[in-house]
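Hi W.,

Here's what went into the run:
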Amino acid sequence: MLGLCRSEFLKLRSVRSNLMMALAAAGLPIAGTVLVSIFISIENVEATTIPRMIGSSGNVSMLIIGILGVLCMTQEYSQSTIRLTLAATPNRYSVYLAKLLVVFVTMAVLMTSVILVCIAAGNAILSARGYTGDTTHPNAQAAYLALVAVSVMIGLLGVGLGAITRNPPSAIAIILLWPLLVEILIGNIVASVFSRNILDWLPFGAAIQTTFLEVDDLKFGRLGSLGYFGLWVMAVVVIGQIVLRRRDA
Amino acid sequence: MRCMIGLDQLDAGSATFNGQRYVDFRRPLHTVGVLLDAGNAHVGRSARNHLRWLAQSNGISKSRVDEVLDLVGLTDVARRKVGKFSLGMKQRLGLAAVLLGDPRAVILDEPANGLDPEGIRWIREMLKKLASEDRAVFVSSHLLSEISLIADNLIVIGKGRLIDQCSVTEFIDRYAQRWVYIAGPQLRDFAPILERAGGQVEFHESGAFVHKLDAAAIGELAAKNSIVLHQLATQTGSLEDAFLELTSSSVEYHGSLGGA
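Here's what came out:
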């Protein structure tokens, strides 16, 4: 399995488009944090400034990571390398598991590193500008961990969607339109017609809220909502595995 | 071929390598090397990285990657992206992937497809070399002239069914037409003699083709009747002729040259 994981990691890192996506996912929060730290008025800096900046730009990075997860799987079909992959490793479950593990570890390391760099850079710049106040929030650590967890899960979701659709545009469209359009539409329709807020029941709605500093309004709490989103991801990943096993390559 | 290596589901039957199903191999590249399509490589990945991920998945060393690149003559372009490769270079890369695990069996689908004459000759020599190293080389091709040059045994399939399986020589003997070419100054006098003996004569510009009689019988008739012959040669149809003769009822799509 280790050799297979190394093989999948090599596939991921040896294509420029994947590296560019990873760079974008990493660069966005770092650039955002650095720019805010440089240009924000010192009087306006609060303990929540850096965590909020990381959280908001991290939410965009999560979607980019989802696309990276999609590409990890669909590139095999768009470039016809899936036949070579399955000829080299006929056990499809192992191939799929290796891809999931690689995405899991890579995205976890990527997002953790990004958050650490953002914190370090933000603090360094603010203190260089003479800010002496607190730059941490009691809930920041939990929000950061949730950001890493959601990013990893969206990456895995991308792999699952890629295995189901086998087509990059379709899977990317789903992973972008699901949170940005479909859930917002469903939430608004239900709110208008039934006067009920179902945001906590919508998978992305629940997941993204776990990355906020304050989660008092979250129906299932931070961990519960992460678990709820995790169930959706697991369902898609399992369906992806069934499709990969059953369909001709 | 895709069914043999588990890429497509089998409706019936089984395929085994050394008594084992392909899908049961943990590291199959050490036993079977497969090239189904030279285009099965990411255009944005370098040739070396393409082979490296394959090697890593089967526990094959980096040095073997360099060895096979050298073997197929791609060392100088190992860092170039596959998208910039010509079809011939992609075929070489595909063959390098096949040889990575030094397998005892090699499966190739249309390896000479789209290659220039030099590439075709290179593939031909490479396949002969592989076979001479006691490897089983299983090639699918519609280029029958090529197959006749390299194959020992044939499996003929039409409409998805096995039509025949034998050596190339046996196949031609069984299905190709044979005739005798004769040339000489007295062919007009000799033709009635041949026809009385059961032959069919078809005059050609410089000689005649005789069907239904073999060269020995024709030679004896010529000697007995004092006929001078300048040429007497048995001619056999090509592998392509034999194939078309055998599969004429198993062709799925027919074309026509008329009415264009």
